[in-house]
Amino acid sequence: MSPVQVRPAALFGFDLMYLTKEEESILEGEKGEGPAKAMELLVALGKIYQADKLIPIQSAQIAGVSYKTMGDAGLEFVKDFGDKEGAKVSVRSMLNPAGMDLESEGYEPEDFRIKQKELIDAYEKMGVKLSCTCTPYLAGNRPDGGEHLAWSESSAVSFANSVLGARTNREGGPSALMAAIIGKTPNYGLHLKENRRPDVVYEVKDEVSPSLLGYLVGGEVGEKVPYFRGLSISEDGLKSLGAAMAATGSVAMYHVEDVTLEAGDFSVEGLEKIEIDTEDIEGVKNELKETSDPDVIVIGCPHLSDRELKKVADLLEGKQKKEETPDLYIYTSRKVKDRSQEAVKIIEKFGKVITDTCMVVSPLEEKYRVAATNSGKAAAYLPKLADQKVIHADLKTLMEMVV
After folding, report:
1. Separation between Cα atoms, residue 240 and residue 218, nearest integer Å
2. Predicted model pTM
3. What DSSP state is assigned to residue 135?
4. Structural domain spans, the chain
5. Arch. (CATH architecture) of 288-400
6. Is the preceding omega at residue 97 within 30 degrees of 0, hence cis?
7. What is the torsion angle, in degrees rounded to the nearest 10, for the CA atoms of residue 83, residue 87, residue 91 and residue 97?
8. End-to-end CA distance of the chain
9. Chain segment 150-175, per-residue pLDDT in tens
């Protein structure tokens, strides 16, 4: 590998990047306009963040999938890029949730469904797998420790880095797509071991809700890497913890002592230490109280695991649905739904199990005004992205609203 001169106009003023001969040829257009544009963006991004080179990735997870968040401008961008010569993904690539269930009608208007289908078709044309989920690690793409990725969904990034020990930055939709085309990403940020070290220690003194803990800590630490002590937690709890921190802050990685893969790799001696107890969590509960009654209950942000679907079913099995209840929507990946047919059959006596989308990126506001959820991530995003008043409660309490 040697430094090569690249086109200054393509790099917005930067004039040097370490590229292999093959990478240089892609930049010069020898494999088509699509790869050339993708390489141009990746090199520019690498120079901005002072990356020394591009590194191979094992998979990409691409955001910018819901028509609700993309709009007509985003739709035209993806369609236009997909029409360029050579615009095909070169590594395993999956999509973030779309704005609707791709196989079942929901609460979205018909014109929304038409535009959403166009957007999905544009990604499929580029070879992206249409498994629209924020939990790809539950849908057949579970990376190993040390693998480099280009993932973009905030909770998926957090889980991959923290729980699985893979390495990915919090990519934007375009940068993840370009990395998928080239099969590489700039070597900076959380791809480097030194940037994965913890910044602050949270000592958890009581048993607390992972979702509410994440909601609280994310708002405090921003982009820092928190380290937790005293936390007894399941994998589903880790998923909820990371998702909430990524929503109220920009946490892309965290450590839990004696639990997560890299927690023992770093010394926390001398770091700031903050205690968290039940009283702190009660403060978050009070913040998320709403006096209005919910007209919808939404569970599955991030998408539910097989275990979580079964837990919902267990709380409903053998019960009678109340005469007047909020509508109930349970969100998961299509893979998990297919594996959990017994649980799905029970749940759908009381509500609907939806795949490919979630309450945040679908047009929930078309039908509902007050949403109840057990998700710290949803509680952070729904008021901003779906114009919802939000009630946060644990799963058992939410199901008692139904039966």
Report:
1. 12
2. 0.94
3. -
4. 55-193, 197-286, 288-400
5. 2-Layer Sandwich (3.30)
6. no
7. -30
8. 64
9. 999 999 999 999 999 999 999 999 99
Instruction: Domain 55-193: give its CATH architecture.
Output: 2-Layer Sandwich (3.30)
Closest CA to 138 of 61, 220, 29, 41: 61
Q: How far apart (Å, rounded) are the C-alpha atoms in residues 123 and 119? A: 7
| SS3 label, residue 351 | coil
Q: Helix axis angle, 110-125 relative to 67-82, nearest 10°?
A: 40
Largest CA distance in the chain: 71
Q: Could you read off the pLDDT of 187-228 as tens digits, one per residue?
A: 999 999 999 999 999 999 999 999 999 999 999 999 999 999
SS3 label, residue 247: helix
Looking at 254-352, list the stretches that DSSP marks H as alpha helix, in order from N- to C-terminal side: 278-287, 306-316, 334-339, 341-347
Euclidean distance between CA atoms 213 and 257, whole angstroms: 16
Of the candidates 173, 234, 178, 175, which has an alpha carbon nearest to the alpha carbon of residue 209?
Answer: 234
Three-state secondary structure call for residue 130:
coil
Q: Residue 330 forms beta bridges with which residues?
A: 299, 353
